[in-house]
Amino acid sequence: MWHPCTQMKQLEATPPLAIARGEGPWLIDTEGRRYLDAISSWWVNLFGHCNPRINAAITDQLGKIEHVMLAGATHEPVVELSERLAKLTGLGHAFYGSDGASATEIALKMSAHYWRNAGQPEKNGFISLKNGYHGETVGALSVTDIPLFKTTYEPLLRHTVQVPTPDARLAEAGETAEAYALRCAVALEVHLAEHASTTAAFIVEPLVQGAAGMAMYHPAYLTRARELCDRYRVHLIADEIAVGFGRTGTMFACEQAALFQQAGTHAEIAPPSRSRRSAPAESGGSVSCRGGSKFGCEQGSHPPPNPLPSREGGCAQTEPAPAGSPANHGDGTPSPLEGWTETARISSADYGAPSPLRGEGWGEGDDPPNRVSRIADFICLSKGITGGYLPLSAVLTTDDIYAAFYDDATARGFLHSHSYTGNPLACRAALAVLDIFEHDNVIAANRVKALDFTRILGEVAAHTRVRHFRHLGMIWAFDVADAAPGFSTRFHQAALALGAFIRPVGHTVYVMPPYVTSADEMRALADAMLLCLDNTEI
Prior knowledge:
Elements: E1 19-23, E2 26-29, E3 34-37, H1 40-43, H2 52-62, H3 76-89, E4 93-97, H4 100-117, E5 125-129, H5 138-142, H6 147-150, E6 161-163, H7 177-195, E7 199-204, E8 208-209, E9 215-216, H8 220-232, E10 235-239, H9 254-263, E11 282-283, H10 338-346, H11 368-373, E12 378-381, E13 393-397, H12 399-403, H13 424-439, H14 442-456, H15 458-461, E14 466-472, E15 475-480, H16 487-497, E16 500-501, E17 508-511, H17 519-534
Helix pairs in contact: 2-13, 3-13, 7-8, 8-9, 14-17
């Protein structure tokens, strides 16, 4: 077989890790050795491997209907899933695909087709962020900005424009993440002021650019982008494929931008200045990704693994933050925006710490779906939507966009399809995932767990090799200052030997574990990372 994103020749000397089964956050190989799945198997697994509730839902569906084409037919799971996603997002129309790249393709095509149906076919251009990643099919790769994936296929790709990333690591000394985000938004504004008439949409990964090395940025950028898209009549596509379903601390990352917008703390938009072109948009070009590939390390040998270690002198567990502290609402429950507060508290001094969004009481009385629809015209969902079980993606959009396709003429309809669109088994898995979120109050529980995990990782954050330690929701990342070529492979191999499945992105180490990971398991993972960091040959 031909493995994805792999130089197959390397596998001749380095066989892939042979996994036989999984239990909760653990992967178990054919020899019975266990590895903590610290990256949720490419960020898809939410509630652990072989989750009994998701298993039961799929098994039940197998006895009813495994698949039926969704063109001219329908079924209960896809109808219920569409209704529940609409309630969660405030975007009332769902179109299904098979994977994240498919969702990107759907959103791009739907946006351009909308403008065509609206009598403005010239509005067919797209803007994305530098270092952004949106998939590897031809349309998705056109708005991706990672040379490793893009350069070879450049002759096949459509011309697009990239604007500066608000990645907080790039802020000037003393500049806050919020100030830097707003400074980056100026380039977007300048471009739209000149090219809105030919621009269909701006596509963005909200709050975290995964393939850029878990580049985190302030929600002020999204609120400003929303205002600019409204002003210049351009769609905003929120690519929440990686960050949706609780990864950033709220169900969807867009919610945090809406909460920030609700607080009304950022400055009014200044008119675009023709003299402010120090950070211009780049047309069709790309810049070197700080982190490298989202797929992590180069293939290397897998040393014999041992159980996760207990490192002498490890980080001790501390008490939860007291009620009324900056990270809490005042009732002991962390704020939805606690990630920014905690990051500011623990980050290296050179990170350009985000402003502490305390926000006690933010969001009370505010319907969460309104938060998503206030920011996005389209939201792309995949990865965690089925808990890591089955391929599924969805694009949700507004009544206005749907209405532009509703017509007697077939050509005005959205003529896009996948053979397995809205597969009943995948939809039942997704419904089980939503049930778990609802019945277990997962978002609130994760806010408490995230604070505990961040304290557990305190010694990692303080390590002399670590720079830009950052945290948002259930994502933690840091850069290794002295990482030499081949670092990601060496770190991956060393972590495997310690029983941890981690794949750094270039010089960035990140953990995005399943939500069922315990404090003890996170403590063991922290010990493994410390042992890897202590080895200066890695």
